[in-house]
């Protein structure tokens, strides 16, 4: 992957750079719902990580192989029983949290298999989403590109929702990055941020 390819991918998926900033060079990573393997390839190029992707879609499996990514075909909602406790430094769920059916179970499995977890997801509390709902429509945006009738998303949430969830589940949030496009959001993140990235571990 050339430098221009890396820069293009980071521009298309700003959460990739936020995730990479938290991962030490040479770390072991498990990427859940890895799609075509772009994140793992990005992390290999920028952080020299070692690891695997987990994906269910046949076409994405083929793309992972083409991208040089080690991938295992599995349904996340069936759990991570193929992996032993503490097998990885980081377990990542990038733009997939909202599509999982058993959210609490998958977060617990992430922290069983890995020392730390990282998730990114579209913030349903973003002002444009609120405005769409206020005017009587389900939101459609860069972060939420599907129509209501063909969306894979079953558990959309806001930043406040996710943080409340972590408190209830004894999950300790250690870092947060909120973005609107490529720009970091500091002021009123639950209102102005379109994408959220969280780093977390087991609660103390």
Please give a quick description of this structure.
The protein is of the alpha/beta class and 204 residues long. It has helices spanning 3-12, 14-21, 38-47, 58-66, 103-113, 127-134, 159-168, 189-192, and strands at residues 28-32, 50-55, 71-73, 88-94, 114-122, 171-180, 183-184, 195-202. Helix 1 (3-12) packs across helix 2 (14-21).
Structural write-up:
- This protein is α/β, with parallel strands linked by helices and 204 residues long.
- The protein has a single domain, classed as Vaccinia Virus protein VP39 (Rossmann fold, 3-Layer(aba) Sandwich).
- Helices cover 34% and strands 25% of the residues.
- The protein contains eight helices and eight strands; from the N terminus they run ααβαβαββαβααββαβ.
- It has helices spanning 3-12, 14-21, 38-47, 58-66, 103-113, 127-134, 159-168, 189-192, and strands spanning 28-32, 50-55, 71-73, 88-94, 114-122, 171-180, 183-184, 195-202.
- It has an eight-stranded mixed beta sheet, sandwiched between helices.
- Helix 1 (3-12) crosses helix 2.
